[in-house]
């Protein structure tokens, strides 16, 4: 059964290769105001294919109802994109903390470990700096999605591209 699944995935990927060549770019749910250097790098790698960063879209505001994605940043980074997101938030943007010991895979984290992480965020100079950066990110993102902002300009560019 596993071999059959692998074969189907390989077959699917081969079929997609034709469509990838026809692609004129990629659309991302993020903002150049936060990840601009990354998008410049992607532009170079994609050999002229356009990279549109038209977000970020907030799933809570889009749905206007509670959603499990609402607190995604508070989840334990266990699988898929969560490990990359944890690295982005803590290492690159330096706007969060890793709960030590959990990366060893223990299901139970002692209260002292949680207490230390909360103190780091709420009662330290490092935590103060993280909160300042969070406010700066928030401001940059709000400006990017406002009229004339970089994400709004990217969205207009994407719409113009697909309706040409």
Automatic annotation (TrEMBL):
Q: One Pfam family for this entry, by name? A: Glyco_transf_N
Instruction: Tell me which residues make up the Glycosyltransferase N-terminal domain.
Output: 15-59
One GO biological process this protein is involved in is:
carbohydrate derivative metabolic process
The secretion signal range is: none
Listed InterPro entries: Glyco_transf_N
A GO molecular function assigned to this protein is: UDP-glycosyltransferase activity
Indicate the family of this protein.
Belongs to the UDP-glycosyltransferase family.
Please identify the protein, giving its name as recorded.
Glycosyltransferase N-terminal domain-containing protein
Name its species. Heracleum sosnowskyi
Query: What lineage, starting at the top, does this entry show?
Result: Eukaryota, Viridiplantae, Streptophyta, Embryophyta, Tracheophyta
């Amino acid at each position: 059964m596993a071999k059959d699944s692998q074969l189907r995935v390989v077959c699917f990927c081969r079929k997609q290769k034709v469509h990838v060549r026809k692609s004129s770019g990629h659309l991302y749910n993020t903002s150049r105001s936060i990840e601009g250097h990354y998008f410049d790098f992607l532009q170079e790698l994609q050999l002229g294919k356009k990279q549109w960063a038209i977000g970020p879209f907030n799933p809570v505001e889009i749905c206007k109802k509670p959603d499990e994605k609402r607190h995604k940043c508070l989840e334990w980074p266990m699988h898929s994109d969560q490990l990359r997101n944890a690295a982005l938030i803590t290492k690159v943007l330096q706007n969060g903390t890793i709960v030590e010991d959990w990366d060893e895979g223990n299901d139970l984290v002692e209260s002292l470990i949680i207490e230390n992480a909360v103190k780091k965020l709420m009662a330290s100079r490092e935590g103060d700096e993280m909160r300042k950066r969070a406010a700066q990110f928030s401001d940059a993102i709000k400006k990017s999605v406002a009229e004339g902002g970089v994400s709004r300009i990217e969205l207009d560019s994407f719409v113009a591209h697909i309706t040409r």
